[in-house]
Amino acid sequence: MSEVYDVLIIGGGPGGYNCAIRAGQLGLKVACIEGRGALGGTCLNVGCIPSKALLHASEMYEAAEKDFADLGIKASVELDLPTMMESKEKTVSALTQGIAFLFKKNKVDYIQGFGKITGNGTVEVEGKTYTAKHIVIATGSEVATLPNVDIDEKKIVSSTGALALSEVPKKMLVIGAGVIGLELGSVWRRLGAEVAVVEYLPHILPGMDGEIQKQATRMFKKQKVKFELGRKVTGVEKTKSGLSVTTEASAGGKPKDIDADVVLVAIGRRPYTNGLGLDGVGVKTDKRGFIETNYFKTSAANIWAIGDCTTGPMLAHKAEEEAVAVAELIAGKAGHVNYDVIPGVIYTSPEIACVGKTEEELKEAGIPYKSGKFPFMANSRARANHETDGFVKILAHAETDEILGAHMIGAGVSEMIAEVALAMEFKAASEDIARTCHAHPTCSEAVRQAAMDVEKWAMQM
Ligand code: FAD
Ligand code: NAI
Question: Which domains does the chain have, with CATH numbers?
Answer without folding.
Answer: 4-141+270-337 (3.50.50.60), 156-267 (3.50.50.60), 341-454 (3.30.390.30)
